[in-house]
Design brief:
The structure holds 2 protein chains of 2 kinds. Chain A is an all-beta fold. Helices cover about 0% and strands about 50% of the residues of chain A. Chain A is globular. In chain B, about 40% of the residues are buried. The chains are: A mainly beta, B mainly beta.
Chain lengths: ~110, ~110
């Protein structure tokens, strides 16, 4: 596709349930990032994939969060046993050049 | 670690010029990026400065001084559609950007 796509666009779940968020990066982009953004706040780094290298997971807030990137393309962010504080917009970005990232439209997650 | 400071809000009128400053503290600095985000939208890339000096792209310009750990985004001929949040972000090598908390720009008629 022409840009980064994410699904679902909105997800409402109950506390304690697991959720999976999907990201399709721009074709050919070797770097893929996950961020989250709470209302009116900046972007919080979660995880970074670069080619076939081991991912940088230093931003994951707890072991309930995990992500994988299959075939160097599509990525899935999984949140297990969701908590209300996990409610946020989860943004995926891909990149080919330093400093220039292309963001998807995000997934708005609401944990009731 | 990294930290960035930028003003939380700026207000200006249509047709005016506005400057949004960003100061940063980081280890392993590679460059400074700027992103625009409209309410409910995703951030969009505006500019990236790896070297000192001014980069101009249409109505928007971005400046970097590595020695002062300082940069700014300059918006000229402001339009109502420029009302948005603007984030500076530091690049520290081939990894994710660290974003500032954002500056909300309100353009008034």
């Amino acid at each position: 596709g022409a840009g980064v796509s994410q699904s679902p666009s909105n997800k409402v779940t109950e506390k304690g349930k697991d959720v999976e968020l999907r990201c399709d990066p721009i074709s050919g982009h070797t770097a893929l990032y996950w961020y989250r953004q709470s209302l009116g706040q900046g972007l919080e780094f979660l995880i970074y994939f670069q080619g076939n290298s081991a991912p940088d997971k230093s931003g994951l807030p707890s072991d309930r969060f995990s992500a994988e990137r299959t075939g160097g393309s599509v990525s899935t962010l999984t949140i297990q046993r969701t908590q209300q504080e996990d409610s946020a917009v989860y943004l995926c970005a891909s990149s080919l050049r330093e400093g220039e990232q292309f963001f998807g439209p995000g997934t708005r997650l609401t944990v009731l | 670690g990294q930290s960035l400071e930028q003003p939380s809000e700026v207000t200006a009128v249509e047709g005016a010029i506005v400057q949004i400053n960003c100061t940063y503290q980081t280890s392993g600095f590679y460059g400074l990026s700027w992103y625009q985000q409209h309410d409910g939208g995703a951030p969009t890339f505006l500019s990236y400065n790896a070297l000192d000096g001014l980069e101009e792209t249409g109505r928007f310009s971005s400046f970097l001084s590595r020695s002062d750990s300082y940069g700014y985004l300059l918006l000229q001929e402001l339009q109502m559609k420029d009302s948005a949040s603007y984030f500076c972000a530091v690049a520290t090598g081939r990894r994710a950007l660290t974003f500032g908390s954002g500056t909300r720009l309100q353009v008034q008629p």
